[in-house]
Structure formats: structure tokens, C-alpha cells
Amino acid sequence: MSGASPRWLRSFASEAVRLGLLSLASLGLGYVLTLALHATGLAPETAFGCAVVICSILNFFGCRHYVFRGPKPAAWREAVKFFPAVLAFRAMEVALFALLNGAWDNHHLAYFATAAVGMASKLLVSRLFIFRRKPQEGAHES
């Protein structure tokens, strides 16, 4: 058991780092897409909405193939769990931000606290319920 726990912890830490990198890439891409779509004449809200949809689809494949490694079930099995979870997390983040901003009267602190709680929650839910992978024996985590 002692050998399995450190291996699981290393795997989990690697997934957390990869999810962080994917999140940063998604943030940048979402911003660029929003700007580009707005430049084509779309309203900022429409451009942002389109960027969120595009980034959510790309995040699914990024999580599936980059963040959570190992044997994979059919894509649709994970997709039917992933996309409703994305909507639920967005709603939770909006509610948490409103709660924290109201309590602290500091939208900067509320933003980063919400982002931290959201990322930790997404990692746990994704790892435990959506992208359930068994660490591969002898596999190198990067």
C-alpha cells in the first residue's frame, strides 16, 4: 500500500500541473478568439460565448489526451459527463464569486479565490468521476 500511495500522489500532482498548463493555454486562446471574433463584427458577448464553446470542446480533448493519461473508454462516455460538469462548474463559480465578493467587498480577491477553488474542484471531479484512469505500470509521468 505504501508504494501505491506515493505513485497515486505523483500521478495526481502531474495531472494538477498539466491541468494548470491546459487552463493557461485555454485562457490565452479564449482571449485571442474573443478578440478575433469581435473583430469580425460579432458583439463582444457573442464573441465571448463562441470562444467559451470552442475552448470547452478543446479542453475536453486536452483533458482526455493530455491531462488524464492511461487507457481511455469511448469518447462519448466521458463527454456526457464532462460537458454537464462544465456548466455546473460555471454556475458554481459565478455563485461563489458573488458570495465572496459580497462578503469581502474585494472583487480581485474574490476572483482569484474563486479560480483556486474552481480549479481544485474541477481536478478532483474530473479525476474521480469523468476521466477515471488507472496509472499504467512503469509509465513515466511528465
From TrEMBL:
It is a multi-pass membrane protein. Its main location: membrane. It comes from the Bacteria. It is found in: Membrane. Signal peptide: none annotated. The keyword Transmembrane helix applies. Residues 31-131 form the GtrA/DPMS transmembrane domain. Keywords: Membrane, Transmembrane, Transmembrane helix. InterPro entries: GtrA_DPMS_TM. The chain crosses the membrane at residues 21-40, 46-67, 79-104, 110-130. This is GtrA family protein.
